[in-house]
Predict the 3D structure of the following.
Amino acid sequence: MKKELDLFLKLTDEIIEAEKDHPVVKPIDPNTLHSALDIGLEDDPVMDDRFESALRDLVMNTPRTASKRFFNQLFGGRNSKAVLGDLLAVVLNTSMYTYKVGGPMIGVELEIIKQSCKIVGYGDRGTGTIPTGGSMSNLMAMIMARDFKKISVTREGISGKYVLYTSEHCHYSIPKNASFIGIGLDQVRKIKTDEQGRMIPSEIELAIEADLAAGNIPFMIIATAGTTVLGAIDPIEPLNRISKKYNLWMHIDGAYCGSIMFTEKYKHLIKGVEESDSFCYNAHKMIGTPLTCSIFLTKHKDAMHESFSIEADYLYQTDHDEFDLGKTSLQCGRRNDALKFWAVWKSIGTKGIRRMVEHHFHLADVARDYVRSHPDYTLYSYDNSVSVCFNYKGIPAKALCKGLYQNAEILVGYGEFKDQQFVRLVTINSQIKDEDVIAFFKTLESFASQMTLV
Ligand SMILES: *Cc1c(COP(=O)(O)O)cnc(C)c1O
């Protein structure tokens, strides 16, 4: 192992050095990957030298998501404590399904769940798990909501049209999961949003009444805390009231911005979260842990067992029900996604996480101020969001983002809202500073000036 660890340290040093001078790698055309890199697998082993150079070429040509020029998706940066935790998880290679195999790591996952439940306001009634991402957290919520409506569904299968209500700007995992859970894509009601991209509660009531009149079975509302493009947060309290009135499961998809629960300044945006039935947030987004780390929480301990627990004598051979996390999981083998998050939380405390999340909002304020004070820009997003959406000099966003990518300047994406396409800058890297945000705009402007010359 020593040889590999030495190589690991060497390559990591090289990556970190390279990120400083070349924050964006020149992309390789996917059709030429095999000629550009030594990627092919062969019958015969390769010598150490060739192995090392093949590996080096691969890692050095991989997009640099931890650099100061990566604003493409809802994650970024590199938290060194989280990396340490994750590396140790790999070295230990436990599986988090039983206490027998996971040992104290099970306690680590349970502590994250417990503290998260406390912050959300579920308190001691709360429970949860760490699925393989936000899409899977949403899937778990949807399965539980379906079963909660009628538990016999788990044995008999679904009958009747189960309908759920979510934002027209919901994450695509929701329609996808709707097909998985057997209710069908057609039973997802995409509710209209207001001018800032938030679901309009009265529209949900209208849709529910129409479904009831048609003999359908409304069973769930899914609110979004941080829509993928604008970062909009649906109005939780009115949605809670509707869910209670019609006896629907209320889930909040906070994969993107649910971590605002850690802040003082922004948590009012999800006021009423404690009244929901389930909630999730992705630590691999706002909290900067490596992918993936999504925390799924629910108030209904028993319902979680009812939906996910199946006996398996070959696996569960000790009496540790509460510590056998496989019993409330979608998977069998479970990666230890808890330790990396625990390493961050333990080292900087809840207060440190609060500062981290608030820093992202501060960076977004810096970006919005810049856009607002420069007349060549048009702003399309709103305050209290870490998505800053804009256009520059009317240049089509798609062409601008593509040019920046192909010329290895910046990785940033574009989005759309109400038929308007724009650049979406995501300020979710806690290692960057105000001047890095300004440098983003300066780089974009200088690139755009060459672009128009061509
Ligand atoms: C990112 C995101 C998801 C999906 O999370 P993954 O971990 O990528 O599966 C779901 N919902 C929202 C609102 C998101 O931003």
